[in-house]
Design brief:
With 266 residues, this protein is an alpha+beta fold. The chain has three domains: 76 residues, lambda repressor-like DNA-binding domains (434 Repressor (Amino-terminal Domain), Orthogonal Bundle), CATH 1.10.260.40; 63 residues, no CATH class; 88 residues, Winged helix-like DNA-binding domain superfamily/Winged helix DNA-binding domain (Arc Repressor Mutant, subunit A), CATH 1.10.10. The chain has a three-stranded antiparallel sheet with strand order 1-2-3. The termini are far apart.
């Protein structure tokens, strides 16, 4: 069981109610410094103050002491923020993905009101990046999980693209209709995904893409890349703002396969 300290609970509950330390101090008849010391764990409030603190923050004393979990989305969001703040550097992304994978399961089962269509999994341990394909589309929204990618889209708030945006989308998608371009994009991504600062040669790209050197060079002209010169040779890597595209494109195959049209006559 996770131990929640009273200093964390006071700070958490105060922020949940949108109060400053000064406002909480005034309501309890103590100084700002006292509240600050409580929340920074320099000292604890006097035991006689606990009922007043719990009453003002609208929780039980058990909840104030962390013996009973408080409920609500706001509580969960604050606890998630607190958890990630305490994580070592470079661990946030994997743990965020684990939570996203769990949320995909939540949405796909309508909050566990439907049967889980796959073997239930503990997303806090073990391997989570290997996956098949799972798609859930409802009027409320859509979510896709495929291999190491999770996608969410909320139904409400959808804005249809205007004419200029559709044209931009068409031009963007056109570059992905060239097989050589796709091969170069995925080759570049595979070669550099483990090292954001790594640049590779055209020969490495051609070899990974299974293309001739001149084919790789021609395709490379249509790919957003960062280029640097070293010892008289050009080296390449995907442009930073483009790094998400290979994973995003991977959601498309099979997910966008042609479907039959069903006509209903009533």
């Amino acid at each position: 069981m996770t131990t929640v300290k009273i200093n964390e609970q006071i700070a958490f509950l105060r922020k949940q109610k949108g109060l400053t330390q000064e406002e909480l101090a005034n309501a309890l008849g103590v100084t700002n410094q006292a509240v600050s010391k409580w929340e920074s764990a320099q000292c604890c409030p006097d035991i006689q103050l606990l009922p007043a603190i719990a009453e003002f923050l609208e929780v039980s004393i058990d909840e104030l002491l962390g013996c009973k979990d408080t409920a609500g989305l706001g509580d969960i969001c604050l606890k998630i923020k607190s958890y990630f703040t305490s994580l070592p550097e470079k661990e946030a992304f994997e743990n965020a993905f684990r939570i996203a994978a769990l949320l995909h399961e939540v949405a796909s089962t309508d909050g566990y009101k439907k049967e889980i269509p796959w073997k239930e999994k503990d997303y806090s341990i073990g391997e989570v990046e290997s996956w098949g394909e799972s798609i859930c589309s409802e009027p409320e929204g859509s979510t896709i999980r495929k291999n190491n990618s999770v996608f969410f889209s909320l139904g409400k708030g959808y804005l249809p693209p205007d004419g200029s945006q559709l044209r931009e989308l068409m031009l963007t998608l056109e570059q992905f209709t060239d097989m050589r371009v796709l091969k170069v994009i995925y080759a570049l991504y595979e070669l550099t995904v483990k090292d954001f600062d790594l640049y590779v040669t055209i020969d490495q790209i051609a070899d990974a893409a299974h293309l001739r050197g001149e084919e790789a060079e021609e395709a490379l002209k249509k790919v957003p890349v960062t280029v640097k010169e070293e010892d008289g040779s050009f080296l390449y890597k995907l442009e930073g703002s483009f790094w998400h595209v290979p994973s995003l494109l991977s959601l498309f195959y099979k997910c966008l396969k042609p479907h039959k049209i069903t006509i209903s006559c009533e």
